[in-house]
TrEMBL record, chains A, B, C, D:
<protein>
    <submittedName>
        <fullName>Trehalose utilization protein ThuA</fullName>
    </submittedName>
</protein>
<dbReference type="InterPro" id="IPR029062">
    <property type="entry name" value="Class_I_gatase-like"/>
</dbReference>
<feature type="domain" description="ThuA-like">
    <location>
        <begin position="3"/>
        <end position="218"/>
    </location>
</feature>
<dbReference type="Pfam" id="PF06283">
    <property type="entry name" value="ThuA"/>
</dbReference>
<dbReference type="InterPro" id="IPR029010">
    <property type="entry name" value="ThuA-like"/>
</dbReference>
<dbReference type="InterPro" id="IPR009381">
    <property type="entry name" value="Trehalose_catabolism_ThuA_prok"/>
</dbReference>
Amino acid sequence: MLKVTVWNENRHEQKNPVVRDIYPQGIHGTIADFLKTEGFDTRTATLDEPEHGLTDDVLNNTDVLVWWGHLAHSEVKDEIVQKVKERVLDGMGLIVLHSGHFSKIFKTLMGTSCDLKWREAGEKERIWVVSPSHPITEGLPEYIEIENEEMYGEHFDIPQPDELIFMSWFEGGEVFRSGCTYKRGNGKVFYFRPGHETYPTYHHKQVQRVIINAVKWAKPVKRERPVYGNAKPLEEIKGGK
Amino acid sequence: MLKVTVWNENRHEQKNPVVRDIYPQGIHGTIADFLKTEGFDTRTATLDEPEHGLTDDVLNNTDVLVWWGHLAHSEVKDEIVQKVKERVLDGMGLIVLHSGHFSKIFKTLMGTSCDLKWREAGEKERIWVVSPSHPITEGLPEYIEIENEEMYGEHFDIPQPDELIFMSWFEGGEVFRSGCTYKRGNGKVFYFRPGHETYPTYHHKQVQRVIINAVKWAKPVKRERPVYGNAKPLEEIKGGK
Amino acid sequence: MLKVTVWNENRHEQKNPVVRDIYPQGIHGTIADFLKTEGFDTRTATLDEPEHGLTDDVLNNTDVLVWWGHLAHSEVKDEIVQKVKERVLDGMGLIVLHSGHFSKIFKTLMGTSCDLKWREAGEKERIWVVSPSHPITEGLPEYIEIENEEMYGEHFDIPQPDELIFMSWFEGGEVFRSGCTYKRGNGKVFYFRPGHETYPTYHHKQVQRVIINAVKWAKPVKRERPVYGNAKPLEEIKGGK
Amino acid sequence: MLKVTVWNENRHEQKNPVVRDIYPQGIHGTIADFLKTEGFDTRTATLDEPEHGLTDDVLNNTDVLVWWGHLAHSEVKDEIVQKVKERVLDGMGLIVLHSGHFSKIFKTLMGTSCDLKWREAGEKERIWVVSPSHPITEGLPEYIEIENEEMYGEHFDIPQPDELIFMSWFEGGEVFRSGCTYKRGNGKVFYFRPGHETYPTYHHKQVQRVIINAVKWAKPVKRERPVYGNAKPLEEIKGGK
């Protein structure tokens, strides 16, 4: 059974009754619920727990980590970010949601600023599938329509995705690369755009479907990890000097 | 005229007479020489200069930066690495050579460990062109043969290259992705494998040709930089909330 | 001096006075004009000329071929398509415009149906730059706005582009991958979306800038072509059988 | 249960006792055996059956098609190739083995010549994993060693793979991109190099593991297929003309 940990900074939910009304158990609670229903062995972790809830034991027992953060990216400790990064390079899948584009973990895995345009106007977003053979699109229609969302617009300062799965249309005139896969070391990373805290985006069945599919796609590969460093020759070297 | 800065840690040349004999003016001196001959406005910078020779003035007047480092990656100051990174994201080209795979600047732009297998046995390397339409291959034969080189072997822990240009065959039985392009922000990055300090690799005409071609390819694009942050709508938003 | 041939089926211009008014010398005439002004050695060729104007002599003296077709894709002779394909694989650049997505030459180079959604409603198109380091974006603002265009919408059935340069937003709610690069053999291919015949799109300065940049980018690499077939070993084989 | 069809031209087995000794039930029989053992619903089809064994009924009931051909590529009927292509674009996975690089189906899906260097000297091949997070590498060591194989060398005239999984080292001095994935329409394609008919390559457990993994990876996505053609607007168009 796949082991999933849903991490959330869990701050908007404490401060803003609008958010708390939409997500009474926190964004992490809602996400964990539909992942459990899908049959994954799911737990949650939040910023204010010791070690942000991401102890060695938790990380070593996580196949796929889901990440939501926004207000408090800078409060996430560098040593925890470093541990998460090492786990990704070791094979753990990572699903970065919405404002997680600016999290330390995403930026350090991308190597770019991860900056973008944004606007909170509750406008319509239409998320189009552009890679119809990809397992992350299983069960989805041609597009996902979200009635009210924050806008994220290009240029999105990310490396060219290994695979571009979704592209968003926004009512206000922008477009965005909304579903992007990357490989890093032995691990797989998926960025998925929607999910502003003041809208019920994670209650949307098709958004849930994407996250469920992404968890399956991101699971670690079972094999010995590559060996690095000094290596004896596998064949005789004749003319070496 | 393209402005090129060749950066070298310049330590092997001080310590090891073998290296000094091959590169009497330092690895940077040899590389700068053939770049000047090609008509680029070329200067050099080294680790032990103030700010490692990479002052704001130098960086702001550099179109393409060539980087060679090995022994002293850890001595490169984080604030200089950060400035170089910002210049790359702003458009400066970056050519990372050989052991530069473990430099701070390459690792932070890649987001991975950049680790690999290696062996100093002076074995034969044959660098095959696999992307024959790429301008970095201009003027090259089907492969470049280097009689004696250090081996670098897979797995090379880098993100999937945007373009894979060269693949190496090694006498001892390994292969390696030897020429890799990446885009980062407004800048372009090229990693090129050969160049162990105890062999005369940078005197090899075809190796020089690759670096010259890469400098031309990596030059900045002339246009306004993207604007990030809060954005007014370009179209009327009807149903927003 | 780069040698460019602009190919056009040149049928709408004969049948439809609206098109003839916008392009009195044909779409090919307008495109050739701004390419000449840029300094390219430019000629035109059209469907109704012998061999569609693409004789061996013309093709062998073309560095980059620009292609516009729509009504009469099926009238383009298979043997001419085959010759163009061989020239692309040999190094000639190919710029495919708008409805050329359904041309025989584009489909045979892509291997897919190249199908898409479309609508002629004269709606607004906004073409966003998503690869700001790419030379095809030189001199461009963040987006190109076209007041009236035909809509092309996803899913666009193409292989994943080697590089995605532009993404379009359409007033009617769709998005599209509008600028896509591919490498095929020794040649480079660029698909660029806008250019419906009843709108003055190729008089738009920024659209012209994209095509000029693309011609420069697509020029052939100067080197010996790869050798295929039976190959003698470069190293001694010990245990072969 | 995944439905797999293994297609083989099955000619070498009829003509050459060496091949018949290695593969008494044909190459297809050996491949089908280990796929059945893995639990796939597996059948075989060969060139000399009516419609090459690839009737509409067979194709419509195939999730993943495995293809081995060599001597008789030209005997495969164009209309069958066209049907296979349409099934791939509709979602069927396709695994192309070894000399299948020159099959009509692979060439039409790639859009290039698919040419390469080759040599039959029974030399050693070492197939290195370069994408350790990819499910096709599950259960594999760092490299697969094959004592005697035909050599295939670069330049391999294919489009840049979406994902490069394996790279081969050959005793005679060449390298090759040995494991390449592509997406085409709703389907996934994997090319895997080894498998010359006079060596027992498909009895090699790790080679079998790659093919098993590839079948799993290539299975169709369950969703409605994209709709193409004329499309009504999803949003009101104001200024259209």
